[in-house]
## 1
Amino acid sequence: MDKHSRRAMEMLAAARPKSGYRPETEEEWRNVQRALEELGFAMFVNAGAPEEKARKAAHEIYGGLAGRVLMQIGYWDDDKK
């Protein structure tokens, strides 16, 4: 595993919510979002993108409001139960 993927996996492990599944607090949401952005960065770098472009793309997709909406969509089915 390369250094970028290892860092992303460490961030994901550290960001695991106390519930073990769904983030409950704003801090948990931010931690998971940062970890997912880092995972996106690693994915783009491993696909051959230059680091600067990979970082920008990961932030645009997984960071900010867009990333938060994508994460929340992943839990929609759980909200309906």
## 2
Amino acid sequence: MPSVLVGTWKTVIVIFLDEDVQTWTTVWRFESAGACRLVKTSFSLLEGFPRTDDRACTFTVLGREIVADFPATSQTMRMTWDLVGVSPDRLRLEGIVYERVE
């Protein structure tokens, strides 16, 4: 597994709708032993409270693909990945750029 993936990665997407503004925050944590965690939080100004999905997983790296398995739901997620530019602190997963936060 590439050690450059180890750490915590975060992205925030802001969506402007006709009568609402939403933020979608996604955080991935990849550990050197192959454990991972995916935390997705959405917040709607209209609703006024966050909704969070926090899932434990394990992962393997197959070249430029990360395969994350979520045992609680028996789901598997496959994502292409690469580093953006020359910085080891910007990770692109499925075309979305994440910043290293830890």
## 3
Amino acid sequence: MARLLWNASEGNPSRIPEHYAEHLGHTYADGAVSLVPLLPKFEDYSELEDFEIEDAIEMLGKVNPEDWPAIEEISGISLEELLRVYDESATGFDFVEDNLGTAEKVEKVLTEIISSVFGAKVSNIRSEKGFFPNPKNNFLQEDDGTFAGMFSYDGNKFLFEIAPSESGWLCTYRMHADSLDKLPPIHSEDDDSKSDYTRRLRHRGWK
């Protein structure tokens, strides 16, 4: 999810809304914390390769809070300095403490993104088959990087995709067939006969 937000910022993490990034926060059972919610405050990254940025994000995914100021007191984090100080052998840890926590973060971030495009607060981010984000469905991410699944609003279900494109990330959605079937038919103005709803795709870019 941090990668999704980073890519969406197009190289300028200060554009990432803090209320999106704050969902990446986590406190571990051993007392360690995640500093990834500070994503909008990352600095000194322009000369870094993509893999170095990912390494830095992983490093910040689990830190000893005694080694850092309180998160609200940190005004910026230099990724170049971070990579210089941390030995490369310390990278590559698995910072996912449990699948439930990861699923919750994915659901929260996708909820915020879809809601910003949909125009109202949505809920229940699930796979198209109705399952929570989990390792078996790769937390709703497909091989090409697209996030796809289903959400709910006002008692109706919608299918969604959040896909990378040349102009940024594109969020698209349409009403699920199950919800369409529950809607009353449309009457034709010409002959008053019933016609089915057209499954129109409504979309808007999200960067």
